Each structure stands twice: as C-alpha cells, then as structure tokens.
C-alpha cells in the first residue's frame, strides 16, 4: 500500500492542473473548501460529499475508563469526536483498485 500523504499543497496543485485556475486561486479554493467543511463540523453539522463519504460529529458522554498499567478507574470527560463514513462508491473504488493491482500511486489517478 502507498504510504504517501496527500497535503493541501498537493490538492491545490491538482486543482491548478485540472481546472486551470492560477496556483494562487487554486490554493485559495482548497483553503475555502476545507474552511467551510471545518466550520460546518464545528457547528455540529454533518458534511456529506456525494460519492466520497460523510463526516459526522458525535457526542460521547462521560464514562469510566481504566488505566491499563495500574487497573485504576479513571473518569473520561464528555467530548465530541469526528467520524468519517466512506460512501459505498468510495469503498467500491478502493476495493476495485486492490483487485486490479493498483497500489494507490498518484501517477495512477
């Protein structure tokens, strides 16, 4: 499997090459999209991206955990967590690439 990490700069470069905006405009567009997604999630909204997946904010209540070393019970504070649920389309694409022998290289996109 590929161990490459896709960065904001990589996304901006892809927009630049495929859409034809300037590099500055491409970078600004990527930043605006990521900022809008972040703002919606911060408000507790679900973000659904068709054929990609959904980002869902879940509230976890207070619970009792256990220190694995000592066995001591420790309270875990309530918190919000972000969960990503891939769409069926994305799951299918990932599994097809595995079957077809693709390793996820950027050159194969």
UniProtKB/TrEMBL annotation:
- Which controlled-vocabulary keywords does the entry list? DNA recombination, DNA-binding, Transcription, Transcription regulation, Translation regulation
Give the CC-aspect GO terms.
cytosol
User: What molecular functions are annotated in GO for this chain?
Assistant: DNA binding; structural constituent of chromatin
Q: Which domain of life is it from?
A: Bacteria
Keyword Ligase set for record: no
Concerning Gene3D superfamilies, the annotation shows: IHF-like DNA-binding proteins
Which PROSITE patterns did the record assign? Answer: HISTONE_LIKE
Summarizing the function annotation, the protein's role is:
This protein is one of the two subunits of integration host factor, a specific DNA-binding protein that functions in genetic recombination as well as in transcriptional and translational control.
Family in the record: Belongs to the bacterial histone-like protein family.
Q: Report what the protein is called.
A: Integration host factor subunit alpha
Q: Which organism is it from?
A: Lutibaculum baratangense AMV1
């Amino acid at each position: 499997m590929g161990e490459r990490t896709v960065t904001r700069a990589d996304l901006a470069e892809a927009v630049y090459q495929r859409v034809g905006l300037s590099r500055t405009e491409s970078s600004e567009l990527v930043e605006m999209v990521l900022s809008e997604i972040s703002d919606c999630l911060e408000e507790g909204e679900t973000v659904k991206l068709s054929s990609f997946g959904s980002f869902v904010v879940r509230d976890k209540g207070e619970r009792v955990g256990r220190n694995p070393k000592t066995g001591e019970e420790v309270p875990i504070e309530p918190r919000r967590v972000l969960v990503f649920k891939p769409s069926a389309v994305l799951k299918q694409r990932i599994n097809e690439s595995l079957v077809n022998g693709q390793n996820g290289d950027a050159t194969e996109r």
